Amino acid sequence: MEEKNQQEKMAIVRQVELFENAFNKAKENGGMWLDNDGRKAPKLYLKPLQISAFNAIILGMHSDQNGYKTNQYTLFSEAKKRGESVQTKEKGVPFLWYNWNEYVNKHNPDEKISRSDYQALPADKQEDYKGIRNREVRSLFNIEQTTLPMVDKTTFDTVVKETGPLKDRTDIESASNEIRQGIENLLEQSRKNLVDIRTDTTGVAHYDSKKDIVFLPPASSYEYYEDYARDAVSMLISATGHQQRLAREGMVVKNGKVSEDAMKQERLVVEVASAVKLQELGISAKLSPDSMKMTDYWLRELKEDPHLPDILERDVNNAIDMIHKAERGEKVELNNRVLQNQIADIKHILPKHYYVADEIKTLPNIDTKEFVVIKEPEQKMADVVLPSGASLGVENEIPGMNKGRIEHALQKEGYETVTFYNVDGSMGYRPDDSFFDGKEVSVNRMNKWNLETLTLLDVSDAVRRSGAIDFEKILMLRNDEGKWALYLKPENEKSFSVYPEKADLNLFFTTIKQGDEETSEKVRQDLAQKYYMAAQNSPDIKIDLFKSDATAEELARIDRVNIFKTKGTESTPSVILCMPTVNGEKLKAREISPQQWQRMWLAEDMQDYKKHLAASLFADVLRKDRTDAVAVGTDKSEQETQSKNPNQQTEVYEEQTEEKSRQSESHGPSESKGNKSKDESPKTETKVTAELSPMLKQFYELKSKHPDAILLFRCGDFYETYSNDAEKAAKILGITLSKSNHTKDAEGKPLMIAGFPHHALDVYLPKLIRAGERIAICDQLETPRQEKDVTEKQKNESDNQEENKVSRMHR
């Protein structure tokens, strides 16, 4: 997942705080953690916008914990426009806002279009794109946190009577009936469109994931109707996580294995999503006794696992979206059924198999009087394949194989229609393998007037493979940017890869995690068939993971490439290195990723792939003669100066900018060691410059030598860039641009900073290079104390040398 900015991190802290208060309340209140008491679901005051499920539960908890009468919320700016400003010292609640202003091609991640361009596309072309979700965090305030109750009490009271708790409603009885009708409608639509719901006789509501059935006791068996509603909603939410629906990892399935942690996470999703739906119905949410035991675990994980809040948001939103779909009357089909329908739609263009027909052709024998009978009991039809003599219009009967006797024998067995064929020729018998589905195939001969069966043929395997492409390999591979691609190697065809849709990717890995090998293999085959046919219809979706953007000239300069693993030790892990020979010269080896190593063994032409890989890793070396750009510290006189004062190492990454649309997969930076000049700064420094930190001084010194390069400084676990470089990097990479409250730039203004985690370098670096930027990566500066120690050490060594010289002179 993407690195979060500071605003997003603070929002998560606030969200977890609300969950902690709610779960602690449940411990003291018999499991009740969201007291709704008939209030309508959270909404934006006077706005028709729909609120996501996860946002709704956050707003609901905030309203409940502060004792507000309604779940109506507003933005600070909107309240101010209405003359109902937020009261002083009021604290807002985080609201996750998503913008979809850009769309990306599913098959080409570098092709992006604006929202207006997307809407202008025809419907069939829009399917090739998906929205890019940009998240923002905004603060909302309950209308009771504004001055509305004071400046317009009449309006506020009206809102409370329409959306507040039951006791404040105008018509309490009508509101209560509305809640019951909501539950009944939910169950009715879910039974039709989502999952089978049956009455349970044991008195315990439960969801059987193996049978995919919800068992629910009648409402009359419950003391309180609200408990019946809670059980019903909880079971429906559980059903959405089924392997062939949303395939949540913690859902227990037949023959599957689920870890205890995954089961606890699934329970959290069910409780939170159930609370969202109950909130829509106006019913309070209550934790089950089993869930009560997990609250401490949930809170610990929400605080310590930075990804869990995002996972919870995703799973809750997806579960509620599926419930809403069923309520609207839309049928929720199982994923495997959807895949089968997609394959069935394109089955007519698949190459046909004739294994059964080819086998039948060899069986009829004129000497032994044997022939083949294909029976279709349901249609009461039979086909008979003879060695010859199938035509009914001429006298061509074979002794011992009289067609009249054969037909008579089959009619006695109940087959009304009998058709005769030869093994070949114009009356040859050659249906494809799919034709034999549900049919009986046997070798027979006549025994007087009766049919004698000699052998039954099992054609089930051939039928199963009919209409399908056989694959040698079906794998998920990562490209150099970490994106998953489906690698397919059809039999007798060249391999290729495609970027699968997100739903298919989730289904692929979920079935693997759940440990059901039979289901997992079926999903792999189904996805392979689906994307094979998609690639046949649209060849442009194919991608090649084994080629680079290197030119023929650059590849020709590579004589050979040696890729090998180093031997690991206790302190140093084994790494995989690539060492090419370019123009007869061996270059210094550079590390490659395990994914690149895996692709090498899959490549149909391994030597060609190794050359392309080397061309990508050593692009700076191969292209340095075609560009006037130089790496920091490569000038000879500079190197001589730098070698006297080794304070800093700088790595430079550069790429030719002649072709703006080039899509390089290069991850191999050129390395050059360089140090800043020994010369001191001019004595006429301005006051502002004199106040700069050592790191900023170094930044401006390097920037003056290389004004066209973006400088990235390694600061602990992050890479940071500053000033204009930060603005440029933030725009290209889409990362957060922030202002420092403590550090000023050379002009005395707050320093602009942009950064990303060090482990994301391999993702962001190629994006900067493809944008035509030169990049210099600099290690952290040594502290003044370290510089002082080095100076003292050099001085001591000089004194020692002088003493030794004097001593030798005395001797």
TrEMBL record:
Residues 694-792 form the DNA mismatch repair protein MutS-like N-terminal domain. One of its GO terms (biological process) is mismatch repair. Pfam families: MPTase-PolyVal, MutS_I. InterPro entries: DNA_mismatch_repair_MutS-lik_N, DNA_mismatch_repair_MutS_N, MPTase-PolyVal. Residues 658-688 have a biased composition (Basic and acidic residues). Residues 194-306 form the Polyvalent protein metallopeptidase domain. One of its GO terms (molecular function) is mismatched DNA binding. Residues 631-688, 784-811 are annotated as: Disordered. This is Zincin-like metallopeptidase domain-containing protein.
